[in-house]
Amino acid sequence: MALKPTISALFLIACTTALIGGENVTTVFSKKEKLAITSVKLSDVKIPLYKRVEITVDLNATYDNPFNPEEISVDAEITLPNNQTLTIPGFYSQKFTRRLDNGKEVLSPESNGEWLVRFSPSTVGSHKIVVKAKDRTGIAKSNPINFAAVKSDSRGFIRISKRDHRYFEFDDGTVFYPIGANVCWAGGKGTFDYDEWLKNFGENGCNYGRLWLAPHWTTFALDRPGKYEDGYGIGMFNLPNAFRIEYVLNAAEKYGINLKLCIESFNVLRRKDGYPEWERTPHNIANGGILKEPSEFWTNPQMEKIFKNKLRYLVARFGAYANLMSWEFWNEVDIISDYTPKLVKDWHQKMGSYLHSIDPYKHLVTTSFANTRGEPTIDLLEELDYIQSHHYGSPDIVLTIDKTHRIKSAYKKPHYFGEIGADAGGPRAKDDPTGIQVHDPMWVSIAIGCSGAAQSWWWDNLIYPKNLYYLYKPAVEFIKDIDFPSENFKTAKAEIHWKKRTLPAERYDLVIEGGPVSWGETEFNKPRVVKIDRTGVKEGLPVSGILHGTVNHPTEHNPVTFELSLPWETTLIIEVGGVSGYGGAGLEVLLNGKKVLEKDFPDTDNSNDTITKYSGEYRVDIPAGKNKIIVNNPGKDWLMISYRFKNAVEKDRPPLFVWGVSGEKTAIFWIRNEFGSWENLCARKQQEPKVEPTVLIINGLKPGDLKVELWDTYGKNPVKSSNINIEKNGEARIELPEIQHDLAVKLKR
């Protein structure tokens, strides 16, 4: 229960300053009046299905904090046409007008605070409403009023598909395939930024976005540090920012965009490097909060009550929006200070159950992790409806997306990448003027069966300044006639061969991406032997994407041995990513028993943050013939790693990757140049060699006639269409043109 200020006057006028524009907003927060409901007014008496009726409640009451339901609660009992009754919580609100002042958003109050109830009907017919209020002086009840719900063209709320648990659909059964980007906070223009951003996304067919409601400096933060008696602090909600959330939900609705609201972010419980906000968060006792340590958040009974009050307010104020796709408890909860998986799991289980119980619209619920592997014990909770992954920094992002989805698809829940980018440190916009890091993750996620397209993080400093919104339209057009839940998609059996090859075999780099990452005793955390000849890897894949040291995780120590048999010289290029901030690491390479490389990566600051200053390439020249190379980490803890052998292999097949799924009526494929990774094109500035015409061979298709479409992924229509007949053997042979970067293929019955 929140602390109470001392009140001597009938009214307390609390001054709240919004984040953007520095406006002074006065709001009546505290009252001392005998409880009475003086009037109840409807916004309309005819409400289309899944639209919102707004009930204004004029109220006299006694309370200090209108956001604490233990002091004052307003609820509407709504009797549905089938005589069932729903209880819909009310909320305290204030209306504002917005303007731009020297490029900054400024909000001005239209009136004092007011009590509202917001409801979205899902059944045609008459609805009866009775409003109830309760404070410390008693209970009041209104006379009943009625409204009629009428048919509309709305598709309803977003659900897990009943036809296929891997996908989403609306109440009316229409598929919802999320395509869009993170749009988590605004610049100085506040909601005026969203007027532009959402219009651009919507006009290019996007249907998804994500907002952050924390930490305190974000555009939509409800929790703001400051004095409780001034209307700030934990348990007090910022009304200007609540108005901003509401405004953006309405604007997104206009453009057909559905929003995920992320309630908390790791920052509020993070002490040190990497965007910490613990010292400034209202949760901290030093700022008037109740927590002495970040870890207390998960177990403090008072904090639990306060957070539940926050959930109640969110449901009351925003739950009636059908374009609210889902609630997200945390952004990257695993990088808080003192992260303890069991405590975090128990909290998610408890809060997930509570949120589902109070949300009459049954919005989906999820959470997220910084580590791409997530936390299986939390991801698998029944209280969380779907899974997200976040990922940055792989030499080839799309390969990591593919590997991760293969693991997460076994969880029997929808899964997509909620954040994706080439570099967690920034968009590298100068290196990536055409948005490869936006385009490629989106297309590979469609082709491998993700429940949504991978969502770019860099909405404000890559997509917007480079005007990359056009990248979305082709993907939207490509999938618009695909009913994902009805297809029963499975990974397709496909390979690519030369159509006619007259040139001698070329040599290519052999790239071995770091695969599964784990800190447990798995098969990937054991010594591994990888055998390679002139045609590529013969056995031993996948290798772990992390090389464990000998001290902190001795049972996971996993050196990699490469056994090479090549008739030419090559160079092993070891690409080191992040290094453990819990002791550092080391790197050594032995060539035929002789140590040829030795590096120490010490942890010099003891911050526990991942160390990036050792990231880069480390090279070892390898002679022709048979060689044994051992790559080992003799240091204390882990390092992220991948491998590349320069001009090592001849390919008797085209240098093209192919990903695809086939279903009942549709098969879809995305084909990309093996040299077309973000790392090659943008960081190393290398050119992709054009690949001569090839043949895509698909097996396992059902017999019958199929329409074949070849798509330029930067265009809005197929570049070529034809018809083929699939014989009893289930094989299709599709001739492909010369490919520079990529090509998409769709087969449709």
Describe the model.
The protein is α+β, with helices and mostly antiparallel strands and 749 residues long. It has four domains: 12-150, Sandwich (Immunoglobulin-like), CATH 2.60.40; 158-387 and 461-486, TIM Barrel; 491-501 and 653-748, Immunoglobulin-like (Sandwich); 507-650, Jelly Rolls (Sandwich), CATH 2.60.120. Strands 3, 5, 6, 11, 12 and 13 form a six-stranded mixed β-sheet that branches. α1 packs parallel to α2 (239-254) and α3 (301-318) packs across α4. The longest helix is centred in the middle third of the chain and has 18 residues, at 301-318. The N and C termini lie far apart (60 Å). The relative contact order is 0.09. Residues 1-27 have low confidence and may be disordered.
Number of helical regions: 11
Mean pLDDT, to the nearest integer, reads 92
Unreliably modeled segments:
1-27
Q: Tell me the CATH architecture of the largest domain.
A: Alpha-Beta Barrel
CATH topology of the largest domain: TIM Barrel
